[in-house]
Hints:
The complex is a heterotrimer of chains A (about 325), B (about 475) and C (about 290). Chain A contains 15 helices and 2 strands. Chain A has about 325 residues and is mainly alpha-helical. Chain A has one domain (about 45-315): ABC transporter involved in vitamin B12 uptake, BtuC, CATH 1.10.3470. Chain A has a two-stranded antiparallel ribbon. In chain A, helix 2 crosses helix 12, helix 4 runs antiparallel to helix 10 and helix 12 crosses helix 13 (about 270-285). Chain B is an alpha/beta fold and about 475 residues long. Chain B contains 18 helices and 20 strands. In chain B, the strands form 4 sheets. In chain B, strands 6-7-8-3-9-10 form a 6-stranded mixed β-sheet, with helices on both faces. In chain B, helix 3 crosses helix 4 and helix 4 (about 120-130) packs across helix 5 (about 145-160). The longest helix of chain B has 16 residues, at about 175-190. Chain C has a single domain, classed as Orthogonal Bundle (ABC transporter involved in vitamin B12 uptake, BtuC). Helices cover about 75% and strands about 5% of the residues of chain C. Chain C has a two-stranded antiparallel sheet. In chain C, a hairpin with a 2-residue loop joins strand 1 (about 135) and strand 2. Chains A and B meet through helix 8, helix 9 and helix 10 of A and helix 2 and helix 3 of B.
Amino acid sequence: xxxxxxxxxxxxxxxxxxxxxxxxxxxxxxxxxxxxxxxxxxxxxxxxxxxxxxxxxxxxxxxxxxxxxxxxxxxxxxxxxxxxxxxxxxxxxxxxxxxxxxxxxxxxxxxxxxxxxxxxxxxxxxxxxxxxxxxxxxxxxxxxxxxxxxxxxxxxxxxxxxxxxxxxxxxxxxxxxxxxxxxxxxxxxxxxxxxxxxxxxxxxxxxxxxxxxxxxxxxxxxxxxxxxxxxxxxxxxxxxxxxxxxxxxxxxxxxxxxxxxxxxxxxxxxxxxxxxxxxxxxxxxxxxxxxxxxxxxxxxxxxxxxxxxxxxxxxxxxxxx
Amino acid sequence: xxxxxxxxxxxxxxxxxxxxxxxxxxxxxxxxxxxxxxxxxxxxxxxxxxxxxxxxxxxxxxxxxxxxxxxxxxxxxxxxxxxxxxxxxxxxxxxxxxxxxxxxxxxxxxxxxxxxxxxxxxxxxxxxxxxxxxxxxxxxxxxxxxxxxxxxxxxxxxxxxxxxxxxxxxxxxxxxxxxxxxxxxxxxxxxxxxxxxxxxxxxxxxxxxxxxxxxxxxxxxxxxxxxxxxxxxxxxxxxxxxxxxxxxxxxxxxxxxxxxxxxxxxxxxxxxxxxxxxxxxxxxxxxxxxxxxxxxxxxxxxxxxxxxxxxxxxxxxxxxxxxxxxxxxxxxxxxxxxxxxxxxxxxxxxxxxxxxxxxxxxxxxxxxxxxxxxxxxxxxxxxxxxxxxxxxxxxxxxxxxxxxxxxxxxxxxxxxxxxxxxxxxxxxxxxxxxxxxxxxxxxxxxxxxxxxxxxxxxxxxxxxxxxxxxxxxxxxxxxxxxxxxxx
Amino acid sequence: xxxxxxxxxxxxxxxxxxxxxxxxxxxxxxxxxxxxxxxxxxxxxxxxxxxxxxxxxxxxxxxxxxxxxxxxxxxxxxxxxxxxxxxxxxxxxxxxxxxxxxxxxxxxxxxxxxxxxxxxxxxxxxxxxxxxxxxxxxxxxxxxxxxxxxxxxxxxxxxxxxxxxxxxxxxxxxxxxxxxxxxxxxxxxxxxxxxxxxxxxxxxxxxxxxxxxxxxxxxxxxxxxxxxxxxxxxxxxxxxxxxxxxxxxxxxxxxxxxxxxxxxxxxxxxxxxxxxxxxxxxxxxxxxxxx
Lengths: 321, 487, 291
């Protein structure tokens, strides 16, 4: 007995259209992003620059959560390590920016492995707790070793990427597009398939012959590499590194919210979420203190009523019963 | 015709804390044969499968496969060595097509390969065709019927071209026709020279398929041999049926008594699986009704539907009122009290506290009298009043669960598999308690696999098989008609 | 002298930590919710209490009462608007409910914090102590209010104990934390049980917030930190264990006081953090946790 494919031609065509719907959305977004410097103020470009780096943080988080199925409550552990490593190397040893960024990424990867190997042995909420504790440790380490790190006030770095707002914008956008391409490609690759299966059905996937611990550690390292790089680049954009901008739990919270808001398991949705969050917070500044309130309220509403996230709904609206 | 021995198991044992799941299991599995593993709930057969697959580590014993002892190996290593399992429950990825699921099974365990080798797509399609999924290969799992999802699981296992296949509960949730087709598929694997180990609750279906059978009970082997031999084995029949079937022909409830509970056309779907298919039964006031059926037949699902724990289609009427849609608490307060198979005791509270919670809704005086009556019925509970529920033995816990349900002074008491995992001596005590219950005016609906326990007290018997009521009548008739055909 | 001072100060602080942590763990144990807006609820109780007492001049006692009521009200709003919505939502798969509740309560907590900052600015406020004066205990001069706080905390905890262990409703709560299905099969409405636990939680958080205001002072910026410290204490003590939270609260409270007095005030949070790290690796279920 075989099963007939009862779905009409139109449904199959629809599937193909959906795939290219994503393509269209991306194309429009990229073109819009590329042309922005022509008609937008330097101030807004600066906001978007920060938002793009945030987008990389959020995408890295989604790779870990949406795909490997691991909830990282302290993404700023990886971001902060990369950022501070780069900052310290630059200000103390005068290494060039590209070298520092690479070193930042490498340090973050090492940090990622040190965190992942013991943490992956724990189940459920305890894994999340370990990631949270890691951030607290980093926070306190920065404060204690204030001589090297500048403590709570932070430290400045002698080199910056550029003084020109437009150049900074291009760099951030380039980093975002490259990261998005790689991360999205990974998510659609066979490796991404294995990661998804590992996250959703660990026992079944192991029984198919996959060493899921190996894959999850690899996912951790990838997330670390991108977070660390973006963290380092952010430091060289702002010219300073401080706990408030790269280590604070509040930042980690925003990363998680951005990814969930944009849509879990979409990778690209995380960018949408990040841009929305940061832009909205800035644009609502005239409201004074209430801007964060409004943004949090909107994000809460999205979570309550559109749990698939912004991109999730854009892509799957119309599909399924 | 069976070939060389592929899997040799000796002395396998596993305990979970204080519970011995598998005591000392050993058997051989040869190429080109289907070995069926049967046993009631708690016999350890699923644990044996998990131990072989590496999902659990055995405490002791050897599992010889491909010339090596794979006991204690991680699951992925065992899978790559040529031993694969078809799981009962799986969570398919909703955003991937059937084909992509099969491709996953064909991928190497590599971190650096980002694209599948070119021939994999081709092979995936061939495998999908092999299991009958050729036409739906590009569809998503959420759009497919349940039987197709089961085939997908088989496709994933077969993709690895295993020498040994473990199949866990393949027939659960399938209709009779689908079971037939599925059995043909499994026979095909055997004919290809693979060694197949099959575990299922449906003894009939296993009997029709397996070349040899091994029966387990409480973690040990009780019989092994050709399927016919095992089915006729005295110990096996006792384990399943509980012993000789004897029943007194009695019903002291006149037929005109109004129905207390009416179940009509009840159907339950678990996701896509049909757990109950248009079940109907009637329980009259004062009657003791037994619903007999093997594990997995659907007794618990039926009771959960009546109690409001699972959604259903069809009608359930209690005292003439439709109770569909009422909350679980409301149904219980209304007089339909279930003592579930899993007992659901408050483990860290004392016996007395458990009982008090059952009697919460009674005025204190009534509660005290009722408690006394129950202590009389189950004297061991009076003795262990202040002990924590989790320190009680299995039999004592069951008595506590029943007593607690009784504290609610139910109009209809539903008992789900009270004899599960209990020693024969305890069954005696429970049986006596059932007798005393009979003498009160309470109406009882009993669900049991152990026919010997279920028959003596019953006014009428229903047989539930694979989600459907297949027989109904008086206990005496059951002994005469179903006696040998039941298993 | 110093030892005695440490003992007394530590006791007061620990009692307050304990009260705050007990509420947090109760909500987790019975309804399975890690409420990340916990600190926010405490802060609202404190600020509303202060406003009633000082701004509107109704006096400390009425202020305290109104503050507690505000905490209760906000807790209920949190339950109905945020938590229940997510738990009953059909669009969210069962396995992901927890992370959505976490994110949702997190966002709600941020909303509360920012809302309070808008209404009250983020300047710290202190409520006038409920009892004025200083008490001399073996030579150590302690504000009478501090003693009162410790006493009040224990009175509330004691009442909670009585409720859970001696009343029918309390026993039902306990049973719900062990086996909600079993409880509903005995005729209890789980929705009412959950309502009860959120009411109790609201009162606990409200009292903790108001007392904190009279002792150390509170500002809207404290909300996140209060949640974090309650969270760490609860994890240390064991998620879902009330006695565990109390033990952990005293451990942490005393460790912090000792550090502040004997080592350096700035290193106050360190020992607790080290303890937390150890706990997570050596005994993740906490001191007395059973899950």
